[in-house]
Amino acid sequence: MNEDIPHFNGNARMIDLPIVSDPRGDLTFMEGGRHVPFDIRRVYYLYNVPVDSERGGHAHRELEQVIFALSGSFRMKIDDGTTQADVWLRNPRKGLYIKNMVWREMDNFSQGAVCMVLASHFYDEADYYRDYSEFLAASQAA
Description:
Keywords: Plasmid. By secondary structure, this protein is mainly beta. The chain has one helix at residues 132-141; strands at 3-4, 12-16, 19-22, 25-28, 42-46, 55-60, 65-71, 74-79, 84-89, 94-98, 103-107, 114-119, 128-129. Strand 8 and strand 9 form a beta hairpin.
């Protein structure tokens, strides 16, 4: 079941992935355009993140993402220019879908946390808002 984050109008929501369980363990899978609402163009992951580090601190003009905690946990702080929310990721079957034009920050990484990100586009530095005030002005102009 996919669950909207309150007041984000579908711009951020939790995505539950299928699970296949048997005595040998659990298997979870995802397919672009089916479980993830876009074709996957890039996958990357963060690991060995010091527990007091902060990551993210940007928004994207076009790119959409689904973010998972494959191991451990961390907090996602999301902001669409009007509404802010904190979302804790700690279940590898549950990903946070973030549409474009949503500012994101990550912190409170547990020891050994692994964060995997599925992205709708290839890397393009021109797609980033790295200055919050520039993002805020653009989000309120839309």
